[in-house]
Amino acid sequence: MKKKRRLNFKVGLLFVLSCLMIILGISLEALEFTSQKSTPKPKKKKVVEKETKKEYNASLIMVGDSLIHNTVYNDAKKEDGSYDFKPMLENIKQVVKTYDLAYYNQETVLGGTSLGLSSYPRFNSPQEVGDAFIDAGFNVVSLATNHTMDKGEEGVLSSVEYWKNKKDIVTAGSYSSFEERDKPHIFEKNGIKYAFLSYTTWTNGLNPPSGKEYLNNVYSDELAAADIARVKDEADVILVAMHWGTEYSNGINEDQTRIANYLSNLGVDIIIGAHPHVIEPVEYINDTLVIYSLGNFISDQDTNDKLTGLMMSVNIKKIVDKDEKSVIIENPKAELIYTKSNSGRKRDFKVYTYKQLNSTIFPGYMEYYEKYKNLILEKTDKVQMDSLGG
Asked: Which of 10, 142, 158, 269 could connect to 241 by a Cys-Cys bridge, CB 3.0–4.6 Å?
């Protein structure tokens, strides 16, 4: 009987000890958990590398000739004797305003009314033409043309003075001194440095006076090479406006081909052509985008081919990664524009994009679209032609 009690006692003791051990184990775990919770382990620091790659972008749109015949400026004349060309550009303004840089060629000299306005063959236009283009968003202007000297030195200096007084407007091709012409013409937009140069191969026999060649930049290989050498090391991109080619010809002549190759070899990125008054093809020579002729932007010439012009756009992208820099001319796009006017006393000149046209404004415009689409893309498959279907 005693043995049985002793055995029961031992069993009970073991049971109590087991319970104590379980309770003790739980307490130790809780203590360890609490300790861990109250004293967190130190976190590893994340090493964040400093961002070195930077990207800059500037959008550029380009249109052709502002060829101001007397019918155009008479249509812009107001009762008080001033001129307002802004309504003529209102359809294009909504497009141009979306771009950082907007180029056009001022074919006729803006000598102003005080010198006497005139039309073909020796033009002089109201300075309000420039006001309208600035209002529409244009800020890069070529001034070297075969009509620059139509009003002589006085006309050029009046034009140059007009443009100098306009804020944030870049011009090239016509100057008031050699010092002004020969300084490096480098400008900046959105962190991108661009050089802008302008030359004409035609003067209609009206050359600048000897010793005053700065009035109109007449092209020579030597002059272009010297100008480009001044800007090449600093500029991210080089734009050259060329007044060249054969009037009213959609074909490219030998002189254009030679000069385009020469400028490409000098490092020019975009060549913007004028003078033929009609559209010519677009081509890439190495990495140089060559727009041989944008045609007319606004004029009162006598055929639909001369009233249809080209509007080109690109994006200029600069990528800087540590000490490496690359510049890309990307997304080249082409769109057609048309100058419409009436036959009555009030002509109502107005520039349209082809997207804004219909058969009432311009009967047969779809045929012209197909014609010029094929011409523009004749020498390249890199350009996107804007579709009339949207």
From this structure: 142
